[in-house]
Every structure is written in structure tokens, then in C-alpha cells.
Amino acid sequence: MVMVQRAVRIAVLIIAALATAYFLWWVRASLYPFVIAFLMAFLLNPAVCYLERRKMPRLWAIIVIYICLLSTLIISTSYLVPVLIRELEVFARELPTLITHGDSLIQSAQSQYQNTTMPYSLRLAFDNGLAQVEMMLQNTVSGIVDTLLNLVSHGVGIVTSPILAFYFLYDSHEMKRKFYLSVPGSWRPGVRLFLKDINKVLNGVIRGQVTIAVIVGFLVSVGLTILDVRFALLIGLLAGALDVIPYFGAFIGATPAIVIALLDSPLLAGKVALLFFAIHQLEGTVIGPRILGEQVGLHPITVIFYLLVGGEVGGLAGLLLGVPLAALGKVVLRHALRLCIHRPASLSND
After folding, report:
1. Which pLDDT band, with edges at 50, 70 and 90, does 253 fall under?
2. Which residues cross the membrane (predicted)?
């Protein structure tokens, strides 16, 4: 009888979770300010808690963190924003020229090898390869433009997110208290353990990947500036943002830089490719393991599988969220199995 009741409870919880997930997916377009606000609050909460442990009231701790963050943002943007705006203006002005120049390079390459005596099958392979390069050029330019337009269209949500994050930070203790009061007493130890594991995964995925992305974006911008590649800051920001996608992010982020460098000279494109390779190796051998460690707990093959599934289902958003959702799903599944086997009160002893 007890097992039947427990099975019914689990079934109800699963149905409720699926219904909630379906509703959130249905209204996902209006949730991005809250998602950004939650991520901001999650990233800033350790600093707020640190000041709170130093006997500073939570409200003042949040205000101090916001002032420090705003000051850093103002100081950095006083240099970065003018440069970024200038690069965007130049990019928009030179975009037709870049496309025309890319087409002329492809046509020149086609005319050179078509006049040779190479076998027909080899020439056909070259034609297919150049067609793919041309498509990659178009997709790269289109992707950059779409990304910039999306940032502009979501400007209102981006502006309101810090306000929502402030309330998340300020009311987090009260929200936790009310949440735990709504949980049956015998379930609370297991729920606390569950949320602790969730927090560990989010720490590894969100804080770790954001930190790595900032470092990679900085290294790419500096490296491209040294190599005198056009739009170095713009490409660095794009590469840093895309770096949150495991494995594929580095390749996707390198594509615009290599393409733009190739329009200037093949030698410069080779240098840019070597730069991205060096940064990727540094990230994989030093930066990533030191920051992320093994907190996510997913095998690389599993990560690639969920990236492919996420990209197929949700496009770029699926690539970004595929691995975090898979890691969270692993935690949920593990605790659900424990719930089926053990009594709720014993979950904390596992």
C-alpha cells in the first residue's frame, strides 16, 4: 500500500513537472528577461552573501555590489562602447563590399583550377567545396546580422533584467523559506539535498562557463587586435558569447574571424586560425579544467549527443541550453530513482 501511494505521488509530481515545462515552453518568448535576471542573481549571490557574512545588511550588500558593477561597467564601456559602435558602423558600411570580394575570390579560384588538366571528379569536388565555402560566408554574415538585430530587439528585456535580479537577490531568503514551508517535513532533507546538487551543477555550468567565456572573449579580442584584423572587438565579443557552447562554440566563433581575415590575405587567415587553435588548447588544458573541474559530471560523448539534440530542437538556444538541461536532468533522474527506492526521510543519508 505504501509503495502504491509513493508511486502515485511520483506520478503526480512528474505530470505536474511536465505540465509546467510545457507551459514555460509555450510562453518562452516572454521569459527571457526573467531568465537573464535569474542568471544575474545567481552569479552575484556569492558576493552578496560574502558581504552579508561580514555583518552588512543584505540590502546594502546588494546596493554595494550593484554600485561596483555599474562603476566597472561605466569605466569599461567608456572605452569599449565607442570602439564597438565604430566597428559596427564600419561593418555595416563594408558588408556589401565584403560579400562582393568573397564572391570574386571564389570565382577566381574556380577559373584557375578549371583551366588545369585535373580530373573531372576532382574539379567537381572543388566546385562542391567552394559552394560550401560560399554558403558558409553567407551564413556567417547572416548570423552576425541576426545576432545584432536580436540584441537590439531584446533591449527592453535586457534593461529590465537588472531590476528583476535585484528583487531576486533581496527576496531570495524569503522565497526559500516559503518554499521549504510548502514541502512536507519528511521530504525536506531530500529536497535540500536535491537543491544542493542542482546548485552544484549550476555553479559548474553557469558561473564556470561565463568566466571561461569572458576570458576567451578577452584573449580573442587582444589577439585579433595584435594581428590587425578588422572588427577585432566585435568578433571577440561574439567568440566569447559562443564559447559557452561546448566543443562547437570555438569552431563557430572562429569562422567569422577566419573568413574576414581570408578576405584580406590567406596568410592572415592562417595566423587567425593558429590564434584560435592556441586559445582553444589553452582553454581545454588549463582554463577549463581549473574553473569547471568535474562539476557538470557528463561524459564528453553525452555532451556531444545533447548538443546535437539541442541544436536540432531549439537551434542556437538549444545549443546553449542542451548541456545545462542535460546535467540538471541527470540530477532530477538520480533523485527520482532514490525516491522510488528509499523513504523520503532517508534521502539525506545517501
Report:
1. confident
2. 7-25, 31-51, 63-85, 151-170, 210-238, 304-328
Residues 279 and 220 sit within 8 Å (Cβ to Cβ): yes
For residue 272, which of 256, 287, 296, 284 has the smallest C-alpha distance? 256
**Cβ neighbours for 154, distance < 8 A, ≥ 6 positions apart:** 32
pLDDT tier, 223 (very low <50, low <70, confident <90, very high otherwise): very high
Question: Residue 333: CB partners within 8 Å, gap ≥ 6?
Answer: none
Record the cell numbers describing residue 228, joined without a space. Answer: 590587425
Tell me which DSSP letter residue 28 carries.
G
Q: What pLDDT, on a 0 to 100 scale, did the predictor assign at position 350?
A: 43
For residues 23 and 17, give the distance between their C-alpha atoms in angstroms, rounded to a whole number: 10
* Residue pointed to by grid coordinates 578576405: 263
C-beta contacts of 154-162 below 8 A and 24+ residues apart? 154/32, 156/33, 157/32, 157/33, 157/36, 158/33, 158/36, 160/33, 160/37, 161/33, 161/36, 161/37, 161/40, 162/37, 162/40, 162/66
CA–CA dist 305, 283 (Å, integer):
21
Angstrom distance (rounded) from CA 158 to CA 188: 35
DSSP secondary structure code for residue 284 in this structure: I
Which of 48-52, 243-247, 252-256 has the lowest average pLDDT?
243-247
pLDDT digits (tens, 9 = 90+) for 199-214: 888 777 777 788 888 8
Sequence-distant (≥ 6) Cβ neighbours of residue 136 within 8 angstroms: 255, 259
Grid cell 554595494 — which residue? 64
Q: Is the pTM of this model over 0.85?
A: no
> pLDDT (tens digit, 9 = 90+) per residue, 56-71?
999 999 999 999 999 9
Q: 195 CB contacts (<8 Å, ≥6 apart)? A: none
Instruction: State how far the alpha carbon of 114 is from the alpha carbons of 122, 126, 133, 137, 219, in Å.
Output: 10, 9, 17, 22, 41
